[in-house]
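Pasting two entries for a bug report.
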Amino acid sequence: MIRLLIVDDQELVRAGLRALVENTDDITVVGEAAHGRDAMTQGRALRPDLFLMDLKMPVMDGITATAAIRADPLLRDTPVLVLTTFDDQDDVLDAIQAGATGYLLKDIGADALRAAVRTAAAGESPVTPAIARQMMSRIARMPPRRVGDRQLATLTPREREVLTQVGRGLSNEEIGRVLFLSPETARTYVSRLLAKLSARDRAQLVVLAHRAGLVQ
């Protein structure tokens, strides 16, 4: 059972998210918080498997809360799945740098939301193509800073291909279809990329793919 803590300052949004994710046998909501500081307090008490975190909140916003969770000895291994809107485009990369493990748009459907929760709880990073495009837009406005040639030189041609598809925001299953690999083989390649590029999670691989110029 995946134990979820929902963090959003709007009560109706929290209620809606609870209704969406709990309509299944393997996810339960153990708590709700209206801001990041409350999420920290409840997180320490309830020890959820995953935070579902809004970005725009009073008292403590989602980016600050994510960084605080990553710095807390009791919570730092708990994934943070960020909820965002197109209006939050400039905050997406900041959330990555703070330590968020995945990113969802608030208009996501019920099945996709539950799938993303399962993916994040399993230690992977759901990043939708829409979010990947937002990240690319933000990165394009930043000063150029390419990934080191030495890092890229350690990658095989197939690993570069997989990194390119990760940068596009594709899941392991989608990468498998594009590159004619099984989902398990695609997952293995992603794990190798994380190790070779010293990336924390899939979201950082998206950033690295854009930095490396693999995704235009």
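Entry 2 (this is the one that rendered wrong in the viewer):
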Amino acid sequence: MGKIAVCPGSFDPLTYGHLDIITRGAKVFNEIRVVVLNNSSKNPLFTAAERVELIKEATKHLPNVQVDTFSGLLIDYAKSVGASAIIRGLRAVSDFEYEMQITSMNRVLDENIETFFIMTNNQYSFLSSSIVKEVAKYKGDISELVPQIVEEKLKEKFMEGASN
């Protein structure tokens, strides 16, 4: 397609489901901007800077992926980097209604930026950052759910919490 696409999310933490969407998007677009959005309605475990570093480490094998952070409207960020597309991952039918609302609003804000939905790989369809954090908190095995660097950082975070 020869275009820039934005792949937004909170990525708290990055999972293999996220990485699946980013990797597949990187095969279609010349450049992927993974953007960590600061969502004021969420209480993240990792800071935005920590999430950016984790994503950079996990995507370093993808030369056309850049990682950034942004507060505000996604459409404003997309315009600021010259993106013509937004990539959103869908896990299940339950994601569709929410994603449809966001896509419709973005279309009102700028009809020139298209949204592309990528269905996640079936093996990750149940996976969410919330589930990963819950399993990691109780020392469950998350090695098949997140990149190794993310697993290590989750263990560190929950060890810090246990000592406080």
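Dev reply: Rendering is fixed now. As a check, the viewer should reflect this: The first strand starts at residue 4 and ends at 9.
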